[in-house]
Amino acid sequence: xxxxxxxxxxxxxxxxxxxxxxxxxxxxxxxxxxxxxxxxxxxxxxxxxxxxxxxxxxxxxxxxxxxxxxxxxxxxxxxxxxxxxxxxxxxxxxxxxxxxxxxxxxxxxxxxxxxxxxxxxxxxxxxxxxxxxxxxxxxxxxxxxxxxxxxxxxxxxxxxxxxxxxxxxxxxxxxxxxxxxxxxxxxxxxxxxxxxxxxxxxxxxxxxxxxxxxxxxxxxxxxxxxxxxxxxxxxxxxxxxxxxxxxxxxxxxxxxxxxxxxxxxxxxxxxxxxxxxxxxxxxxxxxxxxxxxxxxxxxxxxxxxxxxxxxxxxxxxxxxxxxxxxxxxxxxxxxxxxxxxxxxxxxxxxxxxxxxxxxxxxxxxxxxxxxxxxxxxxxxxxxxxxxxxxxxxxxxxxxxxxxxxxxxxxxxxxxxxxxxxxxxxxxxxx
Length: 430
Description:
Alpha-Beta Plaits; Rossmann fold
């Protein structure tokens, strides 16, 4: 064979090798999308939205617990990549070999990481009045910002038995005791307050309840039934302690005359049944209707004496392999989260039931910010405070612009709960 032939064969081999390498690159490199959730992520909120969007298209993705802040690994497609670009989400395109290496790292028993599959987009309901309220709700704000769809329901839908249509329920800033948010002292003459009273009274009558307090108790019991059957409940601010107080007062009238037309039971505060509650026990309700407070569960007085610049809470670290549930709920790019006030800012730890998981706390104030528990086949999460990026959110304040807070660790905790029902979970060990 002459030199020209040898040269030709050599060139062809090089070309063939190049084709193989290019083919491998195109077919093997672009196989997974990794959405990092550490400090490199440009928009954490929108990243959850992408994950939800993928689930809506019946694509299974993987939540890499404690890997780079709780990253998402998604099968590659041009459509998903385009969605990341449109939403301004940071992503990496990685080969199967890289994805395998990451999962091998996570599988190491010495490493506190785990892979959880997310398989189905949960159907989300937000319990909230249909009309405009003089305050905003952090959950609806972040759901809208992340472009995660939800349905607004209220008393009519719950009493009529529609909760079973949903996998996840958020309780908007709400008063389940029937005391109109304890706003009487400051806002009883405000048009929005008077309109709310009329609307609630009309709803109670239409649904067959003699008082608003009985209506709200009926709603609370329906939610309790929903949770027992396997539902997921998430609530913030006054929706936390007022819910448990309502359950504890099932057989007691705790509302004074200006709220329900008749006096409260004289010894009602001594007749609460703590066995009925999700999270709290041994608390005392406020008997002064002019006080903007439901009970001593709320740790607002402690936090109000703490300077804003040092008011932080710390997330607990759980074993990702043995306790994936609280690990999922605590995924974040920081374990130290800025505190924020609310009608119910946080929970005095002395009134939390044994067995309730305290996932976030202010140790110096002995208050819990973020708690979780099980009831029947379902689970619930209570998160103290009103708006994670507005330290003191007052009635009538404008809504938070999340474009200014795309990496909010406080808002991330809400979105962890939104994705939580999509997970294929292992049994909790501790």
